[in-house]
Every structure is written in C-alpha cells, then in structure tokens.
Write a structure and sequence with these properties.
single chain; 264 residues; seven-stranded parallel beta sheet; 13% strand; globular
C-alpha cells in the first residue's frame, strides 16, 4: 500500500521562480488539460500546496476557470498546448527550456459523449472517431512525455504520471464497462506506452506511473445518478498521496487513487 499524507512543499513564490537561475524555487508541476475536470482540480490542489503550477489548455482563449485560478494564485502559470499538435508541444518545451519540472501530469484526454453511446458500441461504431481518441489519449501523452523528459531529468522530483482507466485494463476486463471501444483501446495503448517509458527512464532516476482516478463526478457526468461516483477533490487528493509515494522502485505501476495496485 502506498504511503498516505500530503507533502506540503515550501512557500509560495512569484512567477519569476520559473525562470532559470532564480534564487528560490519550489517544486514545479506541469499539467496537461488543466482547465476542467481532474486537471483543474490537480491545479487547484497543487497550487494550494505551494507548488509552481504550469496549467495547460488547448483553447483559442484562456478558459475562465484558469483566468480565475491564476488571478487568485500567483503560483499558477497558464500556457496553451494541444496534445494532438506536436508543434505546440515542442514549442512549449522550447519556451520552458531550463525550467526543471518535478512532476509531469499527462491528464489531457477524452471519453466521448456518454449520451451518445452508439458511436463506441459494436454494430454502430463510428470509425472516424478512432484517430481522435488515439491521438488524444495515447499519442498525446507519449509525445508530451518525450518532449518534457529533459525538464524532468533536470528536476529534483523526477516523476511522470499519466491518467489512465480500468477501462483500458485487460486484467480488469475493461473495468466491466460496456461498449466504449475507442476509449478502452486508447487507454490500453496509453498503458503500454507508459510501461515502456518507465523502463526507458528508470536509469535516469525518473519514476513513471499510471493512475486510475476512479469514477469521478466531473462536469461531463452532470445529471448522472450513480452512487459509485466520487467527488474530484477526493480522487485528486488520493492521487497526490500516491504520487508523493512514488519511487523508481515502483516505477511502471498502475495504481488506483486509493493506493491499490491495478492489473494491466
């Protein structure tokens, strides 16, 4: 079981601490897809803990959620990065050259519209959606990790995580979820990608993990009456505990938000 207890990291410092050569620097986390859902809650909780937060989004204009958060907390820096556009990923990595990133959270992803299940159900599959799911959920995280590995290597924390799902687990039978073909396949691909990355980066002292957030009551679940749903703050607090306990020795694990190891 992974150790519990949040690690409180230092005092809040200004955005100048992001720059190379600053005299004071707390731990830094980069979060993809940080404008809503799990990503936004990660940004809220890590910024409250005193981390420097680089919150990314793919919108043409900064989403209001991040406008508000960055205004309230000066340790939140907002950047644009669409994980399906490799030029944007490379551009942000270059812009942040020299900035150590203690923790990289590959959170950006898509599930599809739960109210239109036919698109991902056998017999009525919308094959045009396959590439979008794969580019977002699997290839996006791989490219972001590859681009920002130099930043993670340069840090003290040296951790990379990706938000996965039991829906992508062969051992869990797709989490018992019906349909969801493109979501399941893309998450299974993500699991294999990050398991390989864990082996690649072990010699650099970088810990890599896949996290299962549980069934979370995020915005897209509004109106669903499901007693199994948990609140975002509960899921994120649990995953922060898990991340805090990660080591190179546990690198490559697939871990539920409550610390339980999950089957691949």
């Amino acid at each position: 079981m992974f150790r519990k207890g949040l690690a409180v990291a230092g005092l809040l410092v200004g955005l100048g601490a992001f720059a190379s050569g600053g005299n004071v620097q707390s731990q830094t986390v980069l979060i993809s897809g940080a404008n809503s859902g799990l990503g936004l809650e990660f940004a809220k909780q890590y910024s409250a803990l005193g981390w420097q937060v680089i919150a990314t989004h793919r919108r043409d204009a900064v989403p209001q959620t991040l406008v508000d958060l960055s205004a309230a907390r000066k340790n939140v820096r907002v950047e644009r990065m669409d994980v399906t556009k490799h030029d944007e990923i490379d551009a942000l990595a270059e812009k942040l050259e020299g900035v150590p990133i203690d923790l990289l959270i590959n959170n950006a992803g898509m599930t599809g519209d739960f109210r239109q299940p036919k698109a991902q159900s056998f017999g009525t599959l919308d094959y045009d959606q396959f590439n979008t799911f794969m580019w977002t959920n699997a290839l996006g995280a791989l490219k972001v990790t590859e681009a920002f590995t130099p930043h993670v290597k340069a840090s003290e924390g040296k951790k990379v995580v990706a938000i996965s799902s039991l829906a992508g687990s062969f051992g869990a039978g797709g989490g018992g979820m019906p349909g969801g073909y493109w979501y399941k396949v893309s998450k299974a691909a993500l699991n294999m990608f990050m398991a390989n990355v864990a082996r690649e980066l072990r010699s650099d002292g970088i810990a890599v993990a896949l996290l299962s957030p549980g069934e979370v009551r995020v915005e897209k679940m509004a109106g669903y009456d499901n007693p199994r749903l948990i609140e975002p703050d509960v899921s994120i607090a649990g995953m922060i505990d898990v991340i805090d306990a990660l080591t190179v020795e546990t690198s490559g694990a697939f871990i539920r938000y409550n610390g339980e190891l999950q089957p691949f």
